[in-house]
Structure formats: C-alpha cells, structure tokens
C-alpha cells in the first residue's frame, strides 16, 4: 500500500514544476497554499458528507466515501508537497503512535 503513496508523492513532485496550463497539480502550486488548503477543506467536507450518507449495505454510498477520501488524500499530499514535506514523515508519525493509547498521545501534545 505504501508503494501507491510513494509513487503518487514522486509524481506530485514531478508535476509541481510542470506547465500549469497542462497540469492540475502545477496549477494548484502556482495558485499557492491558500488555494491548496481551500481544496483540502472542500474535499474534507465532501468526505464527511459522503460518510454521513453512507449506508452499510449500499455499495454506491460506500464507493462515494472511497472516492471522496481519495480526493482528500490526494489534495492533502499536494499540500504536503507544497510545504516540502513527504508523506513518509506522516507515516513515521503514525508508526510512533502504534504502542501509545490515543488518550496518552493526545495528553502528550499538551506538554
């Protein structure tokens, strides 16, 4: 699974400096962080709405959640790229949390 994330991250880095008239990713970078964050917010809201409407025995509503989550992850990865961060850094952070309860991890952030 990480291969997909790694491949997408590499592709996003390549397209970052592409011609913005030919690359959606390049056009987002050209428009700047605020536009990228706007897209992350829009996709987040669409993911939430799709999840809210999801019915456990309805494949169409489940597919909508998958589709919107993919859009959210994609735009989040564009954001990371714009900030010169890598998805591996996020995965490393998640890895650190494996043996820590969520309550402990949350409490540790206050310090």
From TrEMBL:
Its EC number is 3.6.1.31. Signal peptide: none annotated. Keywords: Amino-acid biosynthesis, ATP-binding, Cytoplasm, Histidine biosynthesis, Hydrolase, Nucleotide-binding. The keyword Cytoplasm applies. The keyword Amino-acid biosynthesis applies. One of its GO terms (biological process) is L-histidine biosynthetic process. CDD domains: NTP-PPase_HisIE_like (cd11534). It is found in: Cytoplasm. It catalyses: 1-(5-phospho-beta-D-ribosyl)-ATP + H2O = 1-(5-phospho-beta-D-ribosyl)-5'-AMP + diphosphate + H(+). Pfam families: PRA-PH. GO terms for molecular function: ATP binding; phosphoribosyl-ATP diphosphatase activity. GO terms for cellular component: cytoplasm. Pathway: Amino-acid biosynthesis; L-histidine biosynthesis; L-histidine from 5-phospho-alpha-D-ribose 1-diphosphate: step 2/9. It is an enzyme of class 3 (hydrolase). Belongs to the PRA-PH family. PANTHER family: HISTIDINE BIOSYNTHESIS BIFUNCTIONAL PROTEIN (PTHR42945), HISTIDINE BIOSYNTHESIS BIFUNCTIONAL PROTEIN HISIE (PTHR42945:SF9). NCBIfam families: histidine_hisI (TIGR03188), PRK00400.1-3 (NF001611). This is Phosphoribosyl-ATP pyrophosphatase. It comes from SAR86 cluster bacterium. The gene is hisE.
């Amino acid at each position: 699974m990480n291969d997909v994330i790694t491949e997408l991250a590499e592709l996003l880095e390549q397209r970052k400096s592409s011609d913005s008239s030919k690359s959606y990713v390049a056009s987002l970078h050209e428009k700047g962080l605020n536009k990228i964050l706007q897209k992350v917010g829009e996709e987040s809201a669409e993911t939430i709405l799709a999840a809210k409407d999801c019915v456990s025995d309805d494949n169409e509503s489940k597919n909508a959640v998958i589709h919107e989550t993919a859009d959210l992850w994609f735009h989040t990865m564009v954001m990371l790229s714009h900030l010169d961060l890598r998805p591996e850094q996020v995965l490393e952070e998640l890895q650190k949390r494996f043996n820590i309860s969520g309550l402990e991890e949350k409490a540790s952030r206050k310090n």
